[in-house]
Design goal:
Length: 185
């Protein structure tokens, strides 16, 4: 990395140090800056799992870019939604998973803050590319094609907030249309 014990701080190449930190799988963003007269500020953003996907030997935690950050044999929920309907073969830690369906689902999830994202149990993407999310109590959020994402995220956020205080049981909300449709049980 170019930082050695006992070497003067002014000899540290901040760009090279930041680049070396970004090579670590655990680090999403890194910056290194001089703090004059005698300091060095290192800022790191740790990679966080955004979703869990299945693979041929277990389950993979992936970040917003589709990069595999951990793997396990058994499914551990931990506030991270499961993306079903998409299976990966021969994927290992450090690999970046490809696919339009996965990219769309990850983009959809990336707009939510961690607390709202934790309310989504699972997203199922079928072979035609239509997605359905499941909220607590088995309420379906029929996302449809993974397009118009920002609009669908806005409606989903409002729906999840209102779902907590809903007076009538809801079966599903359909976001396929420009005007969402809610079906009560």
């Amino acid at each position: 990395m170019g930082v050695y014990h006992g070497e003067p701080l002014m000899f540290v190449n901040t760009d090279a140090a930041a680049q070396a930190l970004r090579q670590d799988l655990r680090v999403e963003k890194a910056s290194v800056q001089y703090m004059f007269p005698h300091g060095l500020r290192v800022s790191l953003t740790e990679r966080q799992p955004l979703a869990v996907v299945a693979c041929d030997y277990g389950y993979l935690n992936v970040d917003r870019d589709g990069r595999v950050i951990s793997a396990s044999r058994h499914f551990r929920r931990g506030g991270v939604p499961f993306i079903a309907g998409i299976d990966f073969k021969d994927a290992y830690i450090g690999d970046t998973l490809q696919g339009d369906d996965l990219a769309g689902a990850l983009e959809f999830l990336s707009y939510f803050d961690p607390d709202t994202r934790a309310q989504i149990d699972k997203i199922f993407v079928n072979t035609e590319g239509y997605a359905t999310a499941y909220a607590p109590g088995g309420v379906e959020i029929r996302i449809g094609r993974l397009e118009r994402i920002e609009e669908k995220v806005r409606v989903t956020k409002d729906f999840l907030a209102e779902l907590k205080t809903a007076k009538y049981p809801i079966e599903y909300i359909d976001l396929n249309y420009t005007s969402p449709f809610i079906k009560f049980k």
